[in-house]
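dumping this here so i dont lose it again. seq + smiles for coenzyme A
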Amino acid sequence: MADFELMHFQEGHLLSATALSEAIGWPHRQSDWKMLLAFSTGVVAKRNGQVAGTALRSDFGPDLASIHMVIASPDARGRGLGRALMTSLLGATDRNIRLVSTRSGRPLYEKLGFQDVARLVQHQGTLTAAPEAIGAQDAQPRDLDSIRRLESQSYGGDRSALIEWLAENGELAVMRSRSDVTGFAGCRRFGRGYVIGPVVAQDVQDTKTLIAHHLKGLVGQFVRLDIVRNVDLTPWLADAGLFMTNQSPVMERGTIPAAPDRMAVFSQGLG
Ligand SMILES: CC(C)(COP(=O)(O)OP(=O)(O)OC[C@H]1O[C@@H](n2cnc3c(N)ncnc32)[C@H](O)[C@@H]1OP(=O)(O)O)[C@@H](O)C(=O)NCCC(=O)NCCS
């Protein structure tokens, strides 16, 4: 019989959840967890009275959800806790699910029917120099409808609430053709510094211009960026001090019509 019990993830679990993710070397601050929980349904596993596991599911419209922050405490692994967390979140929805796997998560996700659809290439470091940025502009309130539309189309689900959060709590830059918004990039505080994403753009040149627009204010800061489209920005980012540190498979379960069509994700967890 299992020696843990599952319960609904509530605000009161945030401190323990932060300690759990810190213990396995993840950068999330308590405020990052709080933001994720605001967009999620979550479950925690308690063992010996302590939070020993977490998992969150964020629903983006009626068809698609993301599962993330799946953690079992190192001393509680291999006893079915990870599977129980996943099964609990999967069982409560008919949505197709997208997630980013780690090496230790892959066996579990494969057993649960997830398949590789793309690859996330993580870059990070202390920004040493900002590439030249000509052509992008700070987004204006009137751009928000276009940004919501571009974000939701490129993700494959309704991301309006996430864009509203970013407009209030971060920065948004846009590319325009005449008066139309053709691409955008977000930037916000996260973990050890800042994250740039999502980036939705028509081509590689626009992607660089949007990223560079945010980088110009971040020299000396720790910056992270997770590229998902099959474009090689690694040498260009390395010149600025942002090195490739990891690659992770994006996995999906269900009948998702297409892989995500975006240059960089909002975050590893939220896609
Ligand atoms: C991923 C993680 C949550 C799994 O937690 P766990 O409690 O050890 O998982 P479980 O005990 O439920 O095992 C899950 C399944 O994977 C299988 N498994 C685990 N490692 C395996 C391996 N190396 N090869 C084959 N199967 C493996 C187990 O046998 C089990 O299968 P079963 O349910 O059919 O018996 C845990 O390893 C973890 O916290 N990793 C660090 C955080 C992370 O990377 N999270 C995932 C990314 S979001």
